[in-house]
Specification:
The protein is 46% helix and 0% strand. The longest helix has 21 residues. It is mainly α. The chain starts with 54 loop residues before the first helix and ends with a helix.
Length: 195
């Protein structure tokens, strides 16, 4: 199920991807190890506010879509920490964090952990399906129900591992997150509607 990421869109093309996609135990820890790609840098700054058009949300989407699952988890963690504890956005971000963890597990060949994380992500996404506002659907480029189904399906099918060099990102999900409206992220849609 490995999917190439070269044709996937970028929402923050001005940001450079990390020098490697971290897999626990296989490369230096990005933050704690002096050889890590984000050691002594604030590669993942704290979010000022939790919103679907924030740089942190969009950076998480870029990382996720291109197979940097550990890094996407870390980017979304910053949003999760500042989101209101009772807000649906916090639950959405938690679902995306769990889906990122499933991506790491799939890459590691840890089937049971991938199924567990994807199942928890799907459960959270399904809890949000009755929200009258379609902002999540617009931001993700698909309905929450479809994303929940995709998450569960991806975790139950063993990934067909492409031969990738250690540290190379590998997209293992056959879907792309991101706004489906004219292929532009939410922030760009707002800018274009004012032109």
């Amino acid at each position: 199920m490995a999917i190439g990421s070269t044709l996937r869109p970028r929402w923050l093309p001005e940001k450079s991807f990390p020098s490697y996609a971290y897999l626990p135990g296989r490369q230096p820890h990005p933050v704690r190890d002096p050889a890590g790609h984000s050691y002594h840098s604030e590669a993942i700054p704290g979010a000022e506010e939790a919103s679907l058009d924030s740089d942190m949300f969009l950076w998480g989407i870029d990382l996720f879509n291109h197979g940097y699952y550990w890094e996407a988890h870390e980017a979304w963690e910053g949003l999760w920490q500042v989101a209101d504890r009772r807000a649906p956005l916090r639950m959405l971000v938690k679902g995306l964090i769990l889906l990122s963890a499933a991506g790491v597990n799939i890459r590691e060949g840890k089937h049971a952990a991938a199924v567990r994380h994807a199942g928890r992500a799907a459960a959270l996404l399904r809890r949000l399906m009755n929200a009258p506002d379609r902002a999540f659907e617009r931001a993700l480029g698909m309905s929450l129900a479809v994303l929940a189904e995709q998450a569960e399906a991806a975790a139950t099918i063993p990934a067909a591992s492409q031969a990738t060099a250690l540290g190379q990102p590998q997209a293992v999900f056959d879907f792309i997150l991101g706004s489906s409206s004219r292929g532009l992220p939410i922030r760009s849609q707002k800018r274009n509607s004012h032109s």
